[in-house]
Design a protein that fits this description.
- By secondary structure, this protein is mainly alpha-helical.
- Helices cover 67% and strands 10% of the residues.
- It has helices spanning 2-15, 18-34, 38-54, 58-74, 81-100, 107-152, 158-182, 185-190, 202-219, 243-260; strands at 198-201, 223-229, 238-241, 266-273, 280-285.
- A 3-stranded mixed beta sheet has the order 2-4-5, with helices on one face. Strands 1-3 form a two-stranded antiparallel ribbon.
- Helix 2 (18-34) packs antiparallel against helix 3 and helix 9 packs parallel to helix 10.
- The termini are far apart.
Length: 295
Amino acid sequence: EAESLMAIGRISMRLGTIDTALHHFHQALTIAEHIQHKMIRIKVNYELAELYRKVGDYTKAYQYFDDFFKLKEETLGDESRRNMKNLQVIYQVEQAKKEADIYRIRNNELAELNQRLTELNTEKNEFLGIAAHDLKNPLSSIMLTASTVKNYFNKMTSEEVIQQMHSIEKTAERMRKIISNFLDIYTIESGTINLSLQHFDLIPAVSNVIDDYKKAADVKNIRLEFITENLAHSIPVFVYANFNSTVEIVENLISNSIKFCHSGSTVRIKVSVLQDKSFARLEVIDNGQGLTEED
């Protein structure tokens, strides 16, 4: 019944009968709350937020979108930050207009506010685009590992299965940290990522990423070769950086090499220490097509 009322509300909204749409949406929300149907509550709160936004009632739009966001966040499927950010900025602009008396705000001040709104929207889109890209590689690794266990379970020892499960757990934990960083509302508002720096050994960090991508490389008959140049065996290479971001960078480089190299190629991952030993260098060398001057 709630789904039907919501559908009628959408149709009414398209026809421009706002009061009718509001009536059916609120009825749907009441029923969804009574039966504790979280997905319908998410959908109805979103429809109400959009409807109030379209009619210019940004206070109520913000209220319903805030409820939508909280419910969405509970399901760990939050893709609402974009609309939430837009509504927050619009709400702040509207409040500023009321407090300063819109009739006394000069034209150039209004132009600056509109320009800032456009800039925030652009920054937010770029920010979320980075998040989506950074999550793609570890998710692909989890899917490939899970597929391997499913297809070869009967041929694997219990130790091998546990090792593969540990790999999935480790990658999933890294995804959780990435999501946690990108869903930090302060991070989105400020447009910056607060990176915590630490000392860690670069050699095992890179080696673990290579191990994670060996299956993907084997599918294309690509060999991954790890080179430690001018380094004695088992000598650590400690760097001072953000561990998760470093791993993400290495993942992106190796993933792109595998993606664009031809079958039978070799991708070389080389770690070296510069002469003064104050910097480490990481290189991923392949025979892919590379970038053009236009790129």
